[in-house]
Amino acid sequence: MRCYPECMSDLLERLRGRGFRLTAQRRVVAEVLDSDHVHYTADEVLARATARLPEISRATVYNTLGELVALGEVLEVSTDGRAKRYDPNAHSAHQHLVCSRCGSIRDVRPEGDLLSALPESERFGFRISGAEVTYRGICPDCAQPGRN
Amino acid sequence: MRCYPECMSDLLERLRGRGFRLTAQRRVVAEVLDSDHVHYTADEVLARATARLPEISRATVYNTLGELVALGEVLEVSTDGRAKRYDPNAHSAHQHLVCSRCGSIRDVRPEGDLLSALPESERFGFRISGAEVTYRGICPDCAQPGRN
DNA sequence: ATCCTACATTAGACAGAGTCCAAGTCAAGA
DNA sequence: TCTTGACTTGGACTCTGTCTAATGTAGGAT
């Protein structure tokens, strides 16, 4: 199961369609996000990108991630106050389950409609555009006694 | 409506009961959190605390906020990847509605049970301890045309 | 009331995450 | 192939937050 709803490789096409230059750097960042379906931090993306393209710079990784987020191709997730993580699974609605101990993240699909759970009287005149849930818990690995 | 479920002034008593020294600095931080029911960042708390007690240091504000969080008297909220905010309303369950433009936060109470919305098949062996919702939208002030 | 001392506070150095900028590079249309 | 504007680079910079060694002080002991 390597390709989620849309392959990242399609992403490269879509980017070009939107007038983006296809550079080696952007290709590598997209490949890293595609390679595992994992929520990397920018620095983790940089490390993996560097392995494929040693000259790539930190600024470019941040720029590219920012562009992908702006295009709606990738989701930015900040579950703790620390580094943001990038979620390549932007094309199917989901929420996140994060391990309070190690910080790992799983995509989950809760039942019900979050938006309709917020009554009009609780909206305070806001024009509401969306909602995110973060479930917190301990992952099986961290729960295992003999491990840290 | 100055005092929510429990007044911060009670907090000082509770702190002393738990063996905390009552210092001018801690008192001032608690007062700032109590004064408006607003979700300040640490730096905003520092600024307001400095107005009352000019010698107070950044480290102390961070320390005190950390202690209040550890005691469960204050909630730490990080809605964007930027500065954490501190929510003095820790004694009644609620969620947050944040303005995508200016970052301001309101407490809201959605209906329904978040935890039960996540079926067993979507828990991946995690021992789940809680869930938070962040509703996003544009606040009335930011939606107003003539304002920025 | 004063003394003691363990706990608090302070200033400033440090660290991690992210942004910005001027200079150099290169994708892709002409 | 040439040209040019968009892209990339490295390094400086900002913002949050943490740590530390030196100094101060709350509050129990005397």
Describe this structure in words.
The structure is a homodimer of 148-residue chains. Chain A has helices at 8-17, 24-35, 42-52, 58-70, 140-143, and strands at residues 40-41, 75-77, 85-87, 95-99, 105-108, 127-138. With 148 residues, the first copy, chain A, is α+β, with helices and mostly antiparallel strands. Chain A folds into 2 domains: 8-87, Orthogonal Bundle (Arc Repressor Mutant, subunit A), CATH 1.10.10; 95-140, Dna Ligase, domain 1. A 3-stranded antiparallel β-sheet of chain A has the order 1-3-2. A 3-stranded mixed β-sheet of chain A has the order 5-4-6. In chain A, strand 4 and strand 5 form a beta hairpin. In chain A, helix 1 (8-17) packs antiparallel against helix 2, helix 2 (24-35) packs across helix 3 (42-52) and helix 3 (42-52) crosses helix 4. The A-B interface holds A 76, 78, 80-81, 83-84, 97, 99-100, 106, 108-112, 114-115, 117-119, 122-140, 143 and B 76, 78-81, 83-84, 97, 99-100, 106, 108-112, 114-115, 117-119, 122-140, 143. Chain A binds a DNA duplex (30 and 30 nucleotides) through residues 20-23, 25-26, 41-43, 55-60, 62-63, 81-84.
- CATH superfamily grouping of the largest domain in chain A: Winged helix-like DNA-binding domain superfamily/Winged helix DNA-binding domain
CATH class of the largest domain in chain A: Mainly Alpha
Structural class of chain A: alpha+beta
Could you name the CATH topology of the largest domain in chain A?
A: Arc Repressor Mutant, subunit A
Helical content of chain A (DSSP H or I, runs of 4+)? 25-40%
Report how far apart the termini of chain A are: 29 Å
Domain module count of chain A: 2
**In oligomeric terms, what are we looking at?**
homodimer
Beta-strand share of residues of chain A: 15-25%
Most residues in contact: chain pair: A-B, 40 and 41 residues
